[in-house]
Amino acid sequence: MSNTKKVKVTKNGKCSVSINCFSCQTRYELCGFSSKQNDDLYYRDITGKKIQDIIPEVDKGWREMFISGICPECWNKMFG
């Protein structure tokens, strides 16, 4: 299973992003992003925007999942 990110747009115009954890293979869905946040997340490797500036309201453990592909629980098991 890969770390494929899938995006859905809800009826209220908010985006949700589904991500698989590389370690446990659990699929997580993070919801409530604006279309601008979604675009910024998608293009952050090109733009150089920091994830904490794009989605500051999201806990740092979940932001890390966008970067490393590892969920907070697995991250804590691996790195304490």
Count every beta strand, where a strand is a DSSP E run of 2 or more residues. Answer: 3
Distance between the termini: 25 Å
Low-confidence stretches: none
Shape: globular
User: Main β-sheet, in a few words?
Assistant: 3 strands, antiparallel
Report the mean per-residue pLDDT as an integer: 87
- Total number of distinct structural domains: 1
**What is the number of helices?**
5
CA radius of gyration: 12 Å
Describe the strand arrangement of the main beta sheet, using strand numbers: 1-2-3
| Helix-strand category | alpha+beta
Query: Level of helix content?
Result: 40-55%
Compressed to H and E, one letter per element, the order equals EEEHHHHH
Q: Hey, roughly how much beta strand do the residues contain?
A: 15-25%
Provide structural commentary:
- The protein is an alpha+beta fold.
- The chain has one domain.
- 41% of the residues lie in helices and 21% in strands.
- The protein contains 5 helices and 3 strands.
- The protein has helices spanning 35-42, 44-47, 51-54, 60-68, 72-79, and strands at residues 6-9, 15-20, 27-33.
- The chain has a 3-stranded antiparallel beta sheet with strand order 1-2-3.
- The longest helix has 9 residues, at 60-68.
Write the layout of secondary structure elements.
Elements: E1 6-9, E2 15-20, E3 27-33, H1 35-42, H2 44-47, H3 51-54, H4 60-68, H5 72-79
Antiparallel strand pairs: 1-2, 2-3
Outline of this structure?
The protein has 80 residues and is of the alpha+beta class. It has five helices and three strands. It has one domain.
Name a few traits of the molecule.
80 residues, 3 strands, 3-stranded antiparallel sheet
